[in-house]
Amino acid sequence: MPERLTEMLMDTWTPLIILWITVLPSIYMAPMNQSQVLPSGSSTGLKRLTEEQRVLNRSKRGWVWNQMFVLEEFSGPEPILVGRLHTDLDPGSSKIKYILSGDGAGTIFVINDKTGDIHAMKRLDREEKAEYTLTAQAVDRDTNKPLEPPSEFIIKVQDINDNAPEFVDGPYHATVPEMSVVGTFVTKVTATDADDPVYGNSAKLVYSILEGQPYFSIEPHTAIIKTALPNMDREAKEEYFVVIQAKDMGGHMGGLSGTTTVTITLTDVNDNPPKFAQSLYHFSVMEDVALGEPIGRVKANDLDIGENAKSSYDIIEGDGMDIFEITTDAQTQDGIIRVRKPLDFETKKSYTLKVEAANVHIDPRFISGGPFKDTATVKIVVEDADEPPVFSSPTYLLEVHENAAINSVIGQVTAHDPDVSSSPIRFSIDRHTDLERQFNINAEDGKITLATPLDRETNMWHNITIVATETRNHSQVSRVPVAIKVLDVNDNAPEFASEHEAFLCENGKPGQVIQIVSAVDKDDPKNGHYFLYSLLPEMINNPNFTIKKNEDNTLSILAKHSGFSRQKQEVYLLPIIISDSGNPPMSSTSTLTIRVCGCSSDGIVQSCNVEAYVLPIGLSMGALIAILACIILLLVIVVLFVTLRRHKNEPLIIKDDEDVRENIIRYDDEGGGEEDTEAFDIATLQNPDGINGFLPRKDIKPDLQFMPR
């Protein structure tokens, strides 16, 4: 079967070149200086070419083994023999010439044109170029004519283990939670080897840990790093430095290796409770400290960090739970104790509190390890301070009648010094609240007296401020508001609410209501106003009018008869007495004016004046006045017109003779200038009659004017 296959291959290949190949010792286990060839007609096994074998070879046709191998990184004193080309057409004479072309021909690879030996002239690196494609041809040395078609073959650079593994992404950094179980994934590293991964074990890597045991382990083939020790505590050691090695040749001796470092940091988990630095804290505070002011800080330390170290504080026991409060400082995680309510040294001098600090975020995996909280005792001592006087009441309300006598006591305020020394107190009125100085106060006992009369109807409330000052320390001052209400007394008589004027129709009927009047009283009785109305004693039997009290505290005026006439009497005056129900009662007399008017049949008032009787029908007094004014105006216009016409027809100068200015003589003599002017009186020429005396003129405005009658 092998012989049949060889014949088929020989019939298929047309080139008659036999490749003499230098067999690599690392592959074929043969000496470096020996050449091997696959003879035509033989099997795939390699045999040494001998003279006897040449005689036995079939000369019918040769075939080509189209691959050669050369060892990389070979550096000997002489060029390395890669292989030999030979053709069956070569009888051993020197007429055949071998030609080589293709990748690196003539530079990297050189052929002996007589023997066909191919040599590598340079040191080759498989990682730079793994194979070269060349073309060989046999030609006639004399004519250079091809003796057969060219044949293509490949020279492969054979890999050797000349590259160590490299960690391209190193050094590495990784994290893993503290207290993790054994086998917890940490990270994965990767190394690369530039050698041929297909050929041999040059690129087969195995990973191991050089430093970092027994805390971590690594999978030899996957390079996954895991925890190897349980319960690693961050608070004991936070960072680990691990050295990882990658070795080729499957980790066997003689392989190359590379290393990298992995810095592994343990991340925090809440596995530690807060702990107070001391079990007892002492603080002191002045009794006059402002509300909300911090008086001290407590600190519960937590070995954890970040969110796991956050704690909240609370007061769980003590006699000052309602007096003090504790809050957490977000920056320092301190517990700040503040005052919630006022302190009083004289009442209580010390307090004892029990505070608790507890973690905010608790990890349920470690809750069985114990309570994540701690307690401490806080003792607070209150110190005495010089406090201002304290009034017996925060506000005072006093009442006084408006008719109270001057210097009468209307009330009293009291205050005391809360300090142990108990300084005497002096009282005064803040005059900015009592500008009219209506009140005084006794500086010793705080009694408030009346200084000026009061009037409830003018000012019902007075608000003043009383000042209490310590005599030993005038800077200690307190103030209290005092509201004084002025109580009413019946000191005002009632009166009509407004000036009433009633109108009575001439055609009115007996018993008809003429007017309803109401009264007002400035006083303010507790049960409201109740007024009594009556006529004067001498008017009780009044023949014309009567009064009637209404349920709504008003009064109705009624007519006793009809037939009132304006011509007979135009106006009636009706005095009315108004009394209140106070003690003592107050009264006043108000007069109601009743005017008789002309009304329509429906009772609508049309006119209330007597002149209406004498006026023309349909004309009122206003219309008559307007007509009279127009007549007077027309008369004035006519008089003015006549006067102006007379003035226009009269001459300017009252004289019967002719005006001397009309007697003008013309002559041609030259004038004498100023001499002629001085020789004659110009005024005489203008008014010859002016010599004899004054003559009135009508072309100018006289000094005195007379209005026409």
Q: What is the domain total for the residues?
A: 5
Strand order of the largest sheet: 2-1-4-7-6
What is the class of the largest domain in the CATH system? Mainly Beta
The overall strand count is: 43
Largest sheet: number of strands, sense, barrel closure: 5 strands, antiparallel
Shape: elongated
Class by SSE composition: mainly beta
CATH topology of the largest domain, by name, is: Immunoglobulin-like
Q: What is the correct CATH architecture of the largest domain?
A: Sandwich
Q: Unreliable segments (pLDDT under 50, ≥5 consecutive)?
A: 1-64, 612-617, 690-695, 697-701, 704-709
* Residues in helices, as a percent range: under 10%
The total count of helices amounts to 6
Mean pLDDT: 78
The end-to-end distance, rounded to whole angstroms, is 175 Å
- Rg, please? 70 Å
Percent strand equals 35-45%
CATH superfamily of the largest domain: Cadherins
Topology:
Layout: H1 2-12, E1 17-22, H2 25-28, E2 35-37, H3 51-56, E3 67-71, E4 80-87, E5 96-102, E6 109-111, E7 117-120, E8 131-140, E9 151-158, E10 172-177, E11 185-188, E12 206-211, E13 216-218, E14 224-227, E15 239-247, E16 257-267, E17 275-276, E18 280-286, E19 294-301, E20 311-318, E21 324-328, E22 334-339, E23 350-359, E24 373-383, E25 390-391, E26 396-401, E27 409-412, E28 415-416, E29 425-429, E30 439-441, E31 447-450, E32 461-470, E33 477-487, E34 495-496, E35 501-505, E36 513-517, E37 519-520, E38 532-535, E39 545-549, E40 555-559, E41 571-579, E42 587-599, E43 605-607, H4 621-649, H5 674-679, H6 682-686
Parallel strand pairs: 3-9, 10-16, 18-24, 26-33, 35-42
Antiparallel strand pairs: 1-2, 1-4, 4-7, 5-8, 6-7, 8-9, 11-14, 12-15, 13-14, 15-16, 17-19, 19-22, 20-23, 21-22, 23-24, 25-28, 27-31, 29-32, 30-31, 32-33, 34-37, 36-40, 38-41, 39-40, 41-42, 42-43
